[in-house]
Amino acid sequence: MKALTWQGKRSVSVEDVPDPRIEDASDAIVRITSTAICGSDLHLYEVLGPYMHKGDVLGHEPMGIVEEVGSSVTNLKPGDRVVIPFNISCGHCWMCNNGLQSQCETTQVHEQGTGAALFGFSELYGSVPGGQAEYLRVPHADYGPVKVGSELPDERYLYLSDILPTAWQGVQYADVPDGGTLAVFGLGPVGQFASRIGKHLGHRVIAVEPVAERRAMAERHGIETIEFSKETGDVLREMTNGRGPDAVLDAVGMESHGSPVGAFAQHAVGLLPDALAKKAMETAGVDRLNVLHAAIDSVRRGGTVSLSGVYGGTASPMPLLTMFDKQIQTRMGQCNVRRWTDQLLPIVEDPSDPLGVMDLKTHEVPLSEAPGAYSMFQKKQDGCIKVVLKP
């Protein structure tokens, strides 16, 4: 089959790889009909390359048609249409039973000391082949896949694989009070949905984003927007009675703009041999923290900072004095996708499309053109916000 493979820093290519097959009784094989490029994929394309291996199959936002199931899979049959959550969870361990599917005890990657295995996301999370391919082997298919209807287009459902539940969890973690204000930093795909979800739940939402096309998309959905600058905290305080927003959601993560120290560290690590680069990332601060520090500065005293953007350094400096003095609460983590999908499925099927899932995709290309789409997405060219690939 054809699949998009990692070949090196900023280098991906579509190659012929072996077709997946049933390896365990709980597996399913899914023929992919749509799969998307995520902002997290760009971290593998750039910063997290030391944890990748040449030929790794990328992608963790797929959906498609079940082709084959293992002997213990009774909830699915060939021909079913499914969305595949990006984290692989068993559904019966203590973590899954407590809504922490991203920490699944059955699929935790113990050799790396990390949580549940993820599709297409480096040795840090199990080196499981991903979904930017014609076919995908899905472990624990007796729990993970979300069965959906056959009438609506893929884009109604596709984002249930990752970015929509990630945004939903981020807003839930933000714990915005009734009548409160949520500031969202970053209007990539997760930030777009987080902003719309905040408004859908009745909050005032102010989105902060340097790219005009991304602000324009949010404004179509009634979101107030401002540009990111050194004065962002002051601007947000002026808009919120001098206090700052009740909660701030960081939807940017480790590769934010305007962080020269972090950018230098990431570039320097990228020049090291993989073994040394891994060690550096495990012991040094390599995140670009400009957005996170701005979120901490902007949020009101006693407010909440919710992190949906991915961070990768283990020694990133944090302004703990400020965080303690302002009594800031923080919540973060990989999305527990299956915790939220039952709530989100009726929303994405609502004919009125309250979260605008049909107004996110800016580019649709065949899988064969994925390398160019990665480059375009990373460089934010041609108004690119969300790319959907069609195998």
UniProtKB/TrEMBL annotation:
SUPFAM superfamilies assigned to the protein according to its UniProt record, in alphabetical order: GroES-like, NAD(P)-binding Rossmann-fold domains
Pfam families: ADH_N, ADH_zinc_N
Domain Alcohol dehydrogenase-like C-terminal: 189-255
InterPro entries reported in the protein's UniProt record: ADH-like_C, ADH-like_N, ADH_Zn_CS, GroES-like_sf, NAD(P)-bd_dom_sf
Gene3D superfamilies reported for this sequence: Medium-chain alcohol dehydrogenases, catalytic domain (3.90.180.10), NAD(P)-binding Rossmann-like Domain (3.40.50.720)
Keyword Zinc: yes
Gene Ontology molecular function: any one: zinc ion binding
Domain of life: Bacteria
Cofactor(s) this protein cannot do without: Zn(2+)
CDD domains: FDH_like_1
Domain Alcohol dehydrogenase-like N-terminal span(s) in chain numbering: 26-143
Keywords of this entry: Metal-binding, Oxidoreductase, Zinc
Transmembrane segments: none
Family, per entry: Belongs to the zinc-containing alcohol dehydrogenase family.
Protein name as annotated: Threonine dehydrogenase
Organism: Arthrobacter subterraneus
UniProt lineage: Bacteria, Bacillati, Actinomycetota, Actinomycetes, Micrococcales
